[in-house]
Design a protein that fits this description.
Radius of gyration of chain B: 13 Å
Strand order of the largest sheet of chain A: 5-6-8-9-10-1-2-3-4-7
Mean pLDDT of chain A: 89
Mean pLDDT of chain B: 94
Number of strands of chain B: 8
Strand order of the largest sheet of chain B: 4-1-7-8
Number of strands of chain A: 33
Oligomer: heterodimer
Largest sheet of chain B: 4 strands, mixed
């Protein structure tokens, strides 16, 4: 195309229909603007709603709340004397939309005139945006690099001269750094050199994924300053050695099932291990062939691990074992094409599909802290699920710099038939200001909506059996820079059964996302949380499932146990479950914890048009039922069980007080405080429980 | 006395809660259950087996009904990369350790 290249990133607001507060981030990728960057011939965009946030004593701030993304494959591009025009069919990543076409006019004259974007929806009014150029790159990411004291020797930031070792004959000569590699991929990756922290690691011989995650939380400036997720922020650590010493680098921030730390949100950090044998010959100025190869491998490892954080899988996991990409292994490629073939052919770039993903992929699946790693193999939705109906709002998935963060988390794995509850956590991200929020997080009260992507790809909205209207419950959350833990509020919420039945009755992988509406004046989407439901233990359990997944059982669980005549059969079936399950069954433990409250309170029923007490509270029986549950939950070392354990033991302490046994109640709470402290709960939470124990008299 | 060479058998891609049995010259040397590939770096686990001289290495994955036999000249330390693809065992021998990232 003659004239200046037009590719790059453009941003602009909705102009018509007027009165809206929508913003478009547009990426045009039809000609070469960045040296050596391949052209993918795509146009893509992210649509945001712009919220104005007013904080006391501060000028109003804008926050962009992400709505959805779209892509045009191979747009038609034409040019006349005044403008370049691009047109194509819009493909939305999620949900059902009317047939949509985009017409984009990029004026050549006058210079810097806004790009006009028109979205023509079949049957609805068209939308017009005026956008101005923001960058020649398509996305911008900040990378903080920290280094462990024991490997704090140069080189820390990799540099590799492309002619220093084996290469394809046509390779342009240049010095490659992490920034340069990502620039050629169209990404403005900025290393925040001023944030480099040297971390004392003399007691650490080798690192686990969980330890890496922990150190990230303590040293990553973006996290410690209370920054919300998802965000275009990434952390890299140069450490000594991984627990599996032949791993040269790891993007540790993903599910345990993949070898990661198992802590939401994901894809925020990675590590490179300087004591790996790949880097034995690494020096600042390579002179020998071995030193050049070490420098090349050093660069490769940094680029490769950062690539995982953009949600790249390995090449062979995408059915592209012969891909010449930073995401392939040289020895895997060589096993197909012969010894040394990879480096003789590798053009120092990501492959075409990866470039499309990193520049134009669905924003939640690319941005750090967005969709879980490997979700959809960056196809963004399971095969065949792209056109399934999606509830409105379900994909309003990630936000800009909002003052509140909503986190959804739980254990990663649930046994078959195990009641599914999640922790919903609100956190104040404002560094210096407290924030008062509506903190009733049960969907029954309308302040939270929960969406569940089932194993078949269908997305359903969790509908509670009951909708409750109650006085609002407000809590003031301390500023993010204040006392540890006082900036957040957590609630455990049961979502296993609702108006339309059981939501997790099939084995497989589920994804859960929640939207916080609060008192109705904000919209805060959560992370996407992944969990897996296991297979039936044996044929007997599979047979029993037929009795278990029944609406009466679901209702009994939902109602926290019910002595109603109508649900007597269901309660009998649950008793049968306790008899069938093994001693340490999590299914039995969670079920007992769920239904015990119903036993501990009086039950009234209508008899001859009169409400009468039909069953007296039996806290003793409820305590007996949950003895085993305390033991089973208490033996789980994972922090993911802390909230459920706390809820159960606090409830048991209340029951002990009811039956007039304060000594036992105090002991129960002190035992809980000890367990939580051992499992890394925040100090203020543990202290609160200790204080409550002292009031048991 | 020279150390006996070791076969480091890397169980790489395609394993999911599998059982793996390793025999050298017909003798069972290792049995692992619950073998699952860590997709982050393409390795489940490494099994080290001492084996001097030419031997026959037999790899069996009973959970997939798959097995493979290969001759290995174990006169020095060797690394065997084993993966499951389409229900079949693939194995490659390397004189250098495999690296993962």
């Amino acid at each position: 195309m003659p004239g200046d290249p037009i590719s790059g990133w453009y941003v602009g607001d909705l102009t018509t229909p007027g009165g809206g507060s929508d913003r478009l981030h547009l990426r045009i990728d039809v000609d070469r603007k960045i040296e050596l960057a391949p052209v993918t011939n795509r146009i893509s965009a992210d649509l945001f709603h712009v919220d104005e946030i007013k904080l006391p004593g501060q000028p109003p701030q804008q926050a962009e709340v992400y709505r959805e993304s779209w892509l045009i494959d191979r747009p038609q591009v034409t040019q006349d004397a005044d403008a370049v025009r691009a047109e194509g069919v819009v493909r939305f990543w999620n949900g059902i939309h009317p047939s949509t076409t985009a017409q984009i006019r990029i004026p050549i004259k006058p210079a810097n005139a806004p790009v006009e974007v028109t979205l023509l929806h079949e049957g609805t009014p068209s939308l017009h945006f005026n956008c101005v150029k923001a960058s020649k790159f398509f996305r911008t990411v900040n990378l903080e690099i920290d280094v462990c004291q024991s490997v704090n020797n140069p080189p820390i930031f990799p540099v590799y001269g492309t002619h220093a070792s084996t290469r394809p004959a046509s390779t342009p000569k240049r010095d490659l750094t992490i920034e340069a590699v990502y620039a050629e991929a169209g990404i403005d990756l900025r290393i925040l050199r001023e944030n480099l922290t040297v971390i004392d690691d003399f007691t650490v011989k080798s690192w686990t994924a969980a330890e890496l995650h922990n150190v990230m939380q303590k040293h990553f400036h973006y996290m410690t300053s209370g920054g919300g997720w998802p965000a275009w922020e990434l952390w890299g650590l140069m450490a000594t050695q991984f627990e599996e010493p032949r791993v040269g680098g790891v993007m540790f921030d993903t599910s345990k099932q993949f070898g990661g730390a198992g802590s939401a949100s994901e894809r925020q950090g990675f590590a490179v291990f300087r004591k790996h044998l790949w880097f034995n010959d690494l020096v600042e100025t390579p002179k020998t062939a071995a030193q050049a190869e070490a420098a090349r491998k050093f660069l490769y490892t940094w680029v490769h691990e950062a690539g995982h954080a953009f949600n790249f899988l390995h090449s062979w996991d995408k059915n592209r074992p012969s891909a010449l990409s930073w995401m392939n292994y040289d020895w895997k490629y060589d096993s197909i094409h012969g010894a040394g073939a990879f480096w003789q052919s590798f053009p120092f770039r990501f492959d075409d599909e990866e470039l499309i993903h990193i520049r134009h992929g669905n924003r939640p699946s690319v941005i750090m802290g967005g969709d879980p790693w490997a979700s959809g193999g960056h196809a963004e939705a399971p095969p065949g699920a792209e056109y399934l109906k999606t509830p409105p709002g379900a994909m309003a998935s990630v936000s800009g710099a909002l003052p509140v963060e909503l986190l959804v988390r739980s254990q990663e794995y649930f046994d078959f038939m195990e009641p599914v509850s999640l922790e919903l956590r609100l956190r104040n991200t404002l560094p210096d200001l407290p924030l008062t929020l509506e903190t009733e997080l049960d969907p029954e009260f309308g302040g939270i909506t929960v969406y569940i992507r089932r194993p078949d790809g269908r997305i359903v909205e969790f509908s509670p059996v009951a909708c409750k209207l109650a006085a609002q419950k407000f809590t003031t959350l301390a500023p993010a820079r204040g006392e540890e833990g006082a900036d957040r509020y957590s609630q455990n919420v049961f979502i296993g059964y609702g108006r339309y039945g059981f939501y997790f009755e099939e084995p497989g992988q589920y994804q859960v996302r929640a939207i916080y509406h609060g008192a109705g004046n904000v919209l805060v989407p959560s992370n996407v949380h992944r969990l897996r439901v296991g297979q039936p233990r044996d044929r007997e359990q599979d047979r029993f499932a037929q009795d278990f997944f029944d609406s009466d059982i679901g209702l009994s669980l939902y109602l926290k146990g019910s002595p109603s005549d109508a649900l007597r059969g269901a309660m009998d079936t649950l008793q049968e479950l306790f008899d069938r399950e093994p001693e340490n069954s999590m299914t039995a433990a969670k079920t007992a914890a769920r239904i015990a409250p119903g036993m501990a309170r009086d039950f009234h029923d209508v008899r001859e048009n009169e409400m009468v007490l039909t069953r007296e509270a039996d806290p003793g029986a409820a305590l007996k039922l949950t003895d085993r549950a305390v033991q089973t939950l208490g033996e789980e070392p994972s922090k993911a069980f802390n909230l459920q354990l706390a809820k159960l033991m606090e409830k048991r302490a209340d029951m002990m007080m009811t039956i007039g046994d304060p000594d036992r109640a105090r002991k129960e709470l002190l035992d809980l405080a000890y367990k939580l402290s051992e499992r890394g709960a925040n100090a203020p939470v543990v202290e609160d429980i200790r204080r409550k124990a002292e009031t048991c008299r | 006395m020279a150390a006996v060479p070791t076969l480091a058998i890397d169980l790489q891609d395609g394993f999911e809660n599998d059982e793996v049995v390793i025999r050298v010259d017909g003798e069972e040397r290792a049995r692992r259950t619950g073998v699952t590939t860590k997709r982050l770096y393409g390795l489940a686990e490494t099994v080290e087996v001492p084996a001097g001289g030419p031997v026959t290495l037999e790899l069996q994955v009973p959970t997939r009904g798959a097995s493979k036999t290969l001759p290995v000249d174990a006169t020095r330390d060797l690394w065997i990369g084993v993966s499951l693809q389409g229900g079949e065992i693939h194995a490659a021998v390397s004189v250098e350790p495999y690296g993962y990232a």
